[in-house]
Design brief:
The chain is mainly α. It contains 15 helices and three strands.
Length: 344
């Protein structure tokens, strides 16, 4: 689905060029989220009002969207429930339960962004809708759910690495897990997006050091692409994988065939999830012990356990908010805090 960038002030060629500019200058994850949200919003408007999206949208439509997504509709027959059932039938909504506030916030943020793309005022800026949104967020407040059941701390990671043999699959998984953990706890999308030329090995022979370039993250873009250090065992594991797989360009991490042949295409984020799950099971953990996000939470949790200063950990994790990163430090059992051993 195309992003709503057309404007009466632009010619068709200019609108096409502007769309291309947005796509080049926006992280791929954001583009995918925008497209999903646009599809959902358009389907909701059609189901609720039997009409397509309008630009600008009216306050009445914005308020109805807010109300429809701020209540549990299981025992609430009526127009809102009928609309939700239509979305469920279309595969765009999971249930009649009240969506998470974060989901509603994201869809509203996308809708507002679509208005900005057209240089239009968003109805969500009106005092009535803004106040209703604040009340809805407070009414639906729920404990923040952790993305990973358990952090993959160093002992868990070592158990997973011990299951990796010298096959192509074993070497790939070892390099993937060690890079994903030791470079600051990378997200699935960041690991998947890495290419061979994102690994700078100029200092590997002399210092055992690699520098990993991340072209786009949730907090940085290509113009500020960080280059994160990777050294010691993780650096050696990545170089071993590059060597045996013959990675000279293209995707860094790739699928492995049943005959242990390295394929040319990219290993996607779902493939990263499967690697983590597979290695957890081989290491003797339940498959749902941790998600791929456990690499990220595990790195920060281990940093807290080892007494690493929060700013030092954030320099690698690339968390923009100290409060967000601090939560992992706060999760560490107080008796395990290294500060309790200051006197010996």
């Amino acid at each position: 689905m195309d992003l709503p960038l057309a404007s009466p002030a632009l010619s068709a060629d200019q609108a096409e060029a502007l769309t291309a500019l947005y796509r080049r200058g926006t992280p791929a994850n954001t583009l995918r989220a925008w497209e999903r949200d646009l599809a959902y919003i358009a389907a909701w408007k059609q189901a609720a009002f039997a009409s397509p999206l309008a630009w600008p949208e009216t306050e009445a439509v914005a308020l109805r969207f807010l109300l429809d997504h701020s209540q549990d509709l299981i025992d609430a027959p009526g127009a809102a429930q009928d609309t939700a059932l239509a979305l469920i039938a279309a595969g765009l909504r999971r249930s009649l339960a009240c969506p998470a506030p974060a989901t509603l916030d994201r869809r509203i943020a996308s809708w507002r962004a679509f208005h900005r793309m057209r240089n239009l005022h968003s109805p969500f800026e009106s005092p009535l809708v803004a106040q209703a949104r604040a009340r809805a967020r407070r009414a639906a407040a729920r404990p923040r759910a952790r993305k990973s059941g358990n952090p993959i701390t160093r002992p868990v990671l070592e158990a997973m690495l011990a299951t990796c043999d010298h096959s192509h699959r074993g070497l790939r998984d070892k390099a993937l897990l060690m890079l994903g953990w030791a470079s600051g706890g990378r997200r699935r999308s960041e690991i998947s997006a890495l290419n061979g030329d994102d690994v700078d090995a100029r200092d590997f022979e002399g210092q055992g050091l690699l520098r990993i370039r991340l072209l786009a993250t949730k907090t940085t873009g290509p113009d500020l692409a960080p280059r994160l250090p990777l050294k010691g065992r993780p650096a050696r594991a990545v170089m071993a994988w590059i060597t045996v797989a013959g990675i000279h360009g293209g995707p860094l991490f790739r699928p492995i065939s049943l005959s242990d042949r390295v394929l040319k295409r990219r290993l996607g984020p779902e493939g990263i999830r499967e690697v983590v799950r597979h290695r957890l099971v081989l290491a003797g953990y339940p498959p749902d012990f941790a998600s791929a996000h456990g690499l990220r939470s595990g790195f920060l949790t281990q940093a807290a356990l080892d007494g690493a200063p929060l700013p030092a950990a954030m320099a690698l994790s690339l968390h923009r908010s100290p409060a967000q990163a601090q939560r992992y430090y706060a999760d560490v059992e107080i008796a395990d805090n290294p500060a309790t051993d200051l006197l010996g």
